[in-house]
Amino acid sequence: MHSRISAQPMAWRLLGLGLLLLLGGCSANWGWYVVSPATESGRTNLRFLVDGLQWTVLLSLTAISVSIVIGLLIALPGLSRKRSLVWTNRLYVELVRAVPILVLILWVYYGLPQVAELSISVFWAGVIALAVSDSAFQAEIFRAGIQSINRGQYEAAQSISLSYTDTMRFVILPQAIKRILPALGNQLVYMLKMSSLVSVIGMQELTRRANELVVNEYRPLEIYTVLILEYLALILIVSAGVRWLEHKMRADER
Questions:
Q1: Alpha-carbon separation of residue 152 from 156, 158, 163, 207, 228 (angstroms)
Q2: What is the chain's Cα-based Rg?
Q3: Sorting pLDDT into bands at 50, 70 and 90, what band is 22?
């Protein structure tokens, strides 16, 4: 455990050293001044880029929260003995997974208002599209996690007269969530990366702000390099948080 914890700062030091070597060895034609913290314009550009972080995080967390709820509701019919409910689950999962997420984002933003005759903001269009797309994967994760629980747990719950809802709530789901936590963490990382696609409909998250800055500064290499570093730092933090939560849950079981 100690070696794993001490290895994380070392990884950050190596990353920083690599970046310094990269920037120090750049050609004179590269315009790193556009994102240099040593100049006023560079600091302004960096603040502009970093300000998109809050929208990326908020969009991703909202979307994955909604997708987890939808995914669980879709997973439960797949566990039923009724063939009609099982087919409902399979139909939803297969249809949603077959639609590219970028196409779904465009359809929700431009098509859904015409179909449903409602006005929808860029943020909620992104949330709906990302949540629906991810819910199919969440449904499969929940289904596999619930099916992995020993049948004896159901029988024990029935022996003390627990209802189906209480059995799921107090017995099955707490155990299943511990088993599927790594998969849920992977989906959060996936959601953070896929949120960049919402930039095509004008969402002012990290990627959209980088695109706008490129149009103004004409320095795509330097600006997109900073964008990659922003996503890299964000994903590393989230991954470390998920691993910490896994270790904590395992320690609580002992």
A1: 6, 10, 15, 49, 48
A2: 22
A3: low
User: What is residue 19's predicted lDDT score, i.e. its pLDDT?
Assistant: 56
User: From CA 27, how far away is CA 70, in angstroms rounded?
Assistant: 50
Q: Are 133 and 99 in contact (CB under 8 A)?
A: yes
> Could you tell me the sign of the dihedral formed by the alpha carbons of 129, 96, 168, 182, in that order?
negative
Residues 135/104, Cβ–Cβ less than 8 Å: no
| Integer Cα distance of 105 and 122 in angstroms | 10
CB 224 within 8 A of CB 214: yes
* Range with the poorest average pLDDT among 137-141, 220-224, 243-247: 243-247
Percent of the chain scoring above 70 in pLDDT = 87
What is the predicted pLDDT for the residue at 206? Answer: 94
Joined tokens for residue 238: 């989230």
pLDDT of residue 1: 45
Position 23 pLDDT exceeds 90? no
Question: What are the structural domains, with CATH classification, of the chain?
Answer: 41-253 (1.10.3720.10)
174 token code pair? 């707490």
Written as six digits, the tokens of 139 are 């449904």
Paired tokens of 229: 């570093």
Q: 103: burial class by Cβ within 10 Å (0-12, 13-18, 19+)?
A: exposed
Please state, in angstroms and rounded to a whole number, the distance separating the CA atoms of residues 214 and 180.
40
Mean of the per-residue pLDDT values of the chain: 87
Which string of DSSP letters, residue by residue, matches 43-107? HHHHHHHHTTHHHHHHHHHHHHHHHHHHHHHHHHHHTSS-HHHHHHHHHHHHHHHHS-HHHHHHI
- As a whole number of angstroms, the longest Cα–Cα distance in the chain is 75
Here the tokens at position 191 are: 């959601």
